[in-house]
């Protein structure tokens, strides 16, 4: 195929078509007529010798070839955008830019307070707009409508960039007067009532039925040893377990950094789980469209710096004999 004979605008058409999976919506987004969009799809099919999108009961569905092309096309357009955009320096001290960040409840409790403190001194007029995972779709990040996602991710599109901020273990939050606090074994753990809390990824979570999407790392760890806990409360907020755990004979198994924050309550104690639960990683992810933006790069570097400061403070606390999450891990560069 001779590149000079290819209309590179078709790549723009293909990117939107694969994202929207609708000729009508794609035409609206590009500001062209539906017949023009249909003609563009026909030319793309001829170009790649593949139908790319086929009709299904739920609308237009991408073919296997289309799924292979999607991240490649997005990367190509991102590179072209970088070439064409005028080079501009980002001055955080005077900037009034709004950054939209999808963050989990966990990230907001453990990372965001320190991030906001750092932001106030480095960029006092910059605005951070935090969104919940249910507010954001993968397409929002691909299109640059949302700058970053900070969460635990089961899957991330191949076209996305990502970096690990830190890893965290799990701990158990228990009422100090709960009898299991003094004899905390796997047997007493399984005989107790539990609070389930989780929210990972992007988009709508498990909704009304967590069993449909899997209960998460804690219950998967129990399943591996042939056990199952008795869950009496389901919540998607990490702040709720402390409110409940000090009023009832319940156990909340939480990320260790969250347990540490809530374990200061005089009625609560923090215990190590009586079985092995693998650590998880808090990641920062972003789409290719904003990868080369000076402002976006500045924000990513600031978040990495703040994460490094938090883990270094934990190391100093550990040296002084204070309780901290185990097996820390931090990647401090992209």
Give an account of the 3D structure.
This protein has 13 helices and twelve strands. The chain has 334 residues and is of the alpha/beta class. It has three domains: 3-84, Arc Repressor Mutant, subunit A (Orthogonal Bundle); 98-167 and 280-319, D-Maltodextrin-Binding Protein, domain 2 (3-Layer(aba) Sandwich), CATH 3.40.190; 170-271, D-Maltodextrin-Binding Protein, domain 2, CATH 3.40.190. Helix 1 crosses helix 3 (34-48) and helix 1 crosses helix 4 (64-84). The longest helix is centred in the C-terminal third of the chain and has 26 residues, at 294-319.
* CATH architecture assignment of the largest domain: 3-Layer(aba) Sandwich
Number of strands: 12
Percent helix range: 40-55%
What radius of gyration results from the CA coordinates? 24 Å
**Assigned CATH class of the largest domain:** Alpha Beta
Helical stretch count? 13
Which term fits the overall shape? globular
Average pLDDT, to the nearest integer? 84
What is the string of SSEs from the N terminus onward?
A: HHHEEHEHHEHEEEHEHHEHEHEEH
Unreliable sequence segments: 202-213, 325-334
- From the helix content, strand content and strand pairing, which structural class follows? alpha/beta
Spatially, the strands of the biggest sheet line up as 4-3-5-12-6
Q: What kind of sheet is the major sheet?
A: 5 strands, mixed
CATH homolog superfamily of the largest domain? Periplasmic binding protein-like II
**How many domains comprise the coordinates?**
3
Tell me the span between the first and last alpha carbons: 36 Å
